[in-house]
Amino acid sequence: MGSILSKEQLMIKAIEHQDINAMKILINDLTREQMNMMCKYIVPRNEYQYTILHLATWQNNPQLLNLLLDYADDLEIRDGFGWTPLMTAINRDSKENVKVLLNRGAKINCDFVQGMDLIAIAMAFHDTGMNIYIYIF
């Protein structure tokens, strides 16, 4: 007998498989408030305590990320290491997701828990192009 997956587990699975259609079906079954909470849901059994929004950012797929950003009210939400979704996109070297997050209002002047700002994080990952993009934005 198979186990029944929660909506959160189904969303995580859809994000991990980058299944846009499955995400759209799940989103259609939820209210705006439920989707907002879904974005903040901490993915179980992960040492980094990242949210579904962080997971979507890590996938390096702007279409997937945009689906969630239509419902997210906190772009500065932190994972267990103090990273925001924008920091995650920079770490992932996802220029498209960085662009999406900045266009949606993510703050570039936020500090990492250890005192680094986003430009320092981009420099730490040796990404001159990302560094210039963030600086210009």
From TrEMBL:
Start-end of each ANK repeat: 48-80, 81-109
Gene3D superfamilies: Ankyrin repeat-containing domain
SMART domains: ANK (SM00248)
Keyword GTP-binding attached: no
InterPro entries: Ankyrin_rpt, Ankyrin_rpt-contain_sf
A Pfam match: Ank_2
Keyword RNA-binding carried by entry: no
Keywords, alphabetical: ANK repeat, Repeat
Protein name, as recorded: Uncharacterized protein
Organism field: Rotaria sordida
